[in-house]
Design brief:
single chain, six-stranded parallel sheet, binds NADP nicotinamide-adenine-dinucleotide phosphate, 18 strands, elongated, Dihydrodipicolinate Reductase, domain 2, Rossmann fold, alpha/beta, 3 domains, twelve-stranded mixed sheet, 13 helices
């Protein structure tokens, strides 16, 4: 049986997951592809770390030139970290005529546009399912399964670490710092967690989706990137009493010719699909003109979920080589947020506009604003403001003790 030869760039969590999954699912791959999938080379940075890896027929190297020199290589999987050297390496293997599958969201968010053009010029395919939502098949759902529908908006929980922290803070009542430490102990957060908790990781994934749907990324002025570091357990408990939950959400849409990508904390009511997306889970809501809202939930990271996305891409690549390219249609829509919640540690909050007081204590006020949000914020610069997603029934004002 003939083989599809694969090189892995990187042999950490993702690289090893791909290697093991190819091994454990070889029979299935052969059935689907009619060919064996064979890893013939692995690139790492530090050979010493991998001195116990000895597999016949697999070249282990720290020299990228060795990968480029492989005579019969069809697919290169990028599972290394950061923009460089990943971007440079992928350009070289694309020019060599190899298909590429990447998990590297930071690199792809910033260089995806040029890599896709280069891949087209060289008649190869680039798969990037693993860059968004780990094992959730969001890219292929948009690319392959929504051929008639026009995509109007995406809302997505794309960072499992942030979702784990927000969920745990609500359930356990601990502070942000204590919960972050717990996430690190459980392996849900890196030792340097800033990419996750400052909203960068989710933002990069939003940019990848923008590139996919609109063929370009938004201008800086129509983007927001805010993390969850300012969400206190007090905020979380106060809104929880009103039946609202914090989520870190990426919202992507196009209005008046401009693409908007917001990566920020927001509140969801029990009516919203993300209300039940708890812990490290990710969730993606695709709003379209025909089918309406489609919701995909699942593990957004991890060794085998990410390997799953990469293997599915390898299969898809082999199908796409002979197929016509798919086109994604979108529809300008605008964000439909019409409710905001303001949390203030003061009772003398200035409210000259359309607002409803949801709850009040001697020191704190929670306001539901439906209009004039920018003016309200200008007059109350210390108040924290969050978009409220999902239908919300305003009940009579509550007194918080
Ligand atoms: N982990 C996840 O759940 C997940 C999910 C989706 C996407 N991703 C993305 O997948 C990529 C890999 O993540 P990971 O968690 O597997 O990272 P990791 O465990 O830190 O592994 C990174 C691998 O890349 C190698 N590497 C780093 N710099 C290199 C260089 N300059 N040249 C050659 N090799 C180099 C490292 O080599 P050494 O082993 O020698 O150090 C290591 O094997 C990242 O871009 C990440 O954002 C990860």
């Amino acid at each position: 049986m003939s083989c599809i030869n694969v090189a892995l760039l990187g042999f950490g969590t993702v690289g090893k997951g791909v290697y093991q999954s190819i091994d454990s699912h070889q029979t299935r791959l052969e059935k689907v592809l009619g060919k064996r999938v064979k890893v013939i080379a692995v690139l790492v940075e530090n050979l010493e770390k991998h001195k116990n890896f000895k597999e016949e027929g697999v070249l282990l190297t720290d020299r990228f030139e060795d990968i480029l020199a492989l005579p019969d290589l069809q697919v290169v999987v990028d599972a290394i970290v950061g923009c460089e050297p990943g971007n440079t390496y992928l350009k070289k293997v694309i020019k060599k005529g190899c298909h590429v599958v990447t998990a590297n969201k930071e690199m792809f968010a910033q260089h995806g546009e040029e890599l896709i053009v280069l891949a087209k010029e060289n008649h190869v395919t680039i798969g990037f399912e693993a860059t968004v939502g780990g094992g959730i098949p969001v890219i292929q759902t948009i690319k392959q399964l929504l051929q008639v529908n026009r995509v109007k908006k995406i809302e997505a929980i794309l960072n499992g670490t942030s979702n784990f922290i927000l969920t745990s803070m609500r359930k356990d009542g601990h502070s942000f710092d204590v919960t972050l430490e717990l996430a690190q102990q459980n392996g849900y957060a890196e030792s340097d967690p800033s990419n996750d908790i400052e909203g960068y990781d989710a933002f990069y994934k939003g940019l990848v989706l923008s590139q996919l749907i609109y063929g370009e990324t938004p201008e800086n002025k129509t983007t927001i990137r805010r993390g969850i570091t300012n969400i206190t357990s007090d905020f979380i408990q106060r809104v929880n009493e009103l039946g609202l939950r914090f989520r870190h959400i990426v919202t992507l849409y196009k209005a008046s010719g401009q693409i908007y990508c917001k990566s920020e904390p927001a509140l969801v009511s029990s009516e919203h699909p993300f209300y039940q997306v708890e812990g490290v889970q990710n969730g993606v809501s695709i709003y379209t003109d025909l089918v309406g809202n489609i919701q995909l939930n699942g593990p957004g990271a991890g060794m085998f979920p990410t390997a799953s996305a990469i293997l599915e891409d390898i299969i898809q690549i082999n199908r796409e080589v002979s197929a016509e390219p798919s086109f994604i249609e979108f529809q300008e829509d605008g964000e439909d947020t019409s409710n905001w919640v303001l949390l203030s540690d003061k009772t003398d909050i200035k409210l000259p506009y359309e607002t409803k007081v949801l709850a009040r204590s001697d020191e704190k006020t929670i306001i539901l604003a439906t209009d004039n949000i920018e003016k309200i914020l200008t007059e109350n610069p210390l108040a924290s403001c969050f978009a409220l997603k999902g239908a919300f029934q305003h009940t009579p004002e509550k007194v918080i003790i």
